[in-house]
UniProtKB/TrEMBL annotation:
Protein name: Decorin
Annotated ranges, domain LRRNT: 54-72
Compartment(s) where it occurs, according to its Swiss-Prot or TrEMBL record: Secreted, Extracellular space, Extracellular matrix
Signal peptide: 1-16
Family label: Belongs to the small leucine-rich proteoglycan (SLRP) family. SLRP class I subfamily.
Pfam families according to UniProt: LRR_8, LRRNT
Self-association state and partner proteins as the record states: Binds to type I and type II collagen, fibronectin and TGF-beta. Forms a ternary complex with MFAP2 and ELN. Interacts with DPT.
UniProt-listed InterPro entries: Leu-rich_rpt (IPR001611), Leu-rich_rpt_typical-subtyp (IPR003591), LRR_dom_sf (IPR032675), LRRNT (IPR000372), SLRP (IPR050333)
Record keyword NAD present: no
Sorted UniProt keywords: Extracellular matrix, Glycoprotein, Leucine-rich repeat, Proteoglycan, Repeat, Secreted, Signal
Main localization of the protein described in the UniProt heading: secreted
Top-level taxon of the source organism: Eukaryota
Cellular component terms (Gene Ontology): extracellular space
Organism encoding this protein: Nomascus leucogenys
Amino acid sequence: MKATIILLLLAQVSWAGPFQQRGLFDFMLEDEASGIGPEVPDDRDFEPPLGPVCPFRCQCHLRVVQCSDLGLPPSLTELHLDGNKISRVDAASLKGLNNLAKLGLSFNSISAVDNGSLANMPHLRELHLDNNKLTRVPGGLAEHKYIQVVYLHNNNISVVGSSDFCPPGHNTKKASYSGVSLFSNPVQYWEIQPSTFRCVYVRSAIQLGNYK
């Protein structure tokens, strides 16, 4: 998982030139097996071809890109990994993301977010985990001081606990939630205790229901 996230990150922020990714780990060079050479363009109309470019400091071989032990950019504030085949998020995968404010993991196949993962992102404000395969609310939200937006719609969450989002007591969270989406999950809204959202000061910020 660590290699997956680091590789995807480098694919977005560390390319030395233009890159067109058609699928996960699709770094394959264009097939030249036809033996038909391209027409030589006029120098006046020449433009560098768009295609896979090996990430800086990585080693690339046809279908393999090796970017191990390069770490993550310390100044990173947003990380978008939407629409890939990530199935799990663990603490090691998110290590070093101290400045991250927004993490996008929508439209993946994530079934679990391991406990302790969010602790590696102390400044996180937005977490997008909608359209995945989660069966429960990710652990650590209640202890997170600054998170304000959590998108969890279109998952398989059937139960929401009274301490999943807010810490015990009142007014112990540094920032209140401004957006929590739980619609299109099998959990029934009338089964959720009202105290579950005690640290959400604007009730309109909570979106529930509409599960089919």
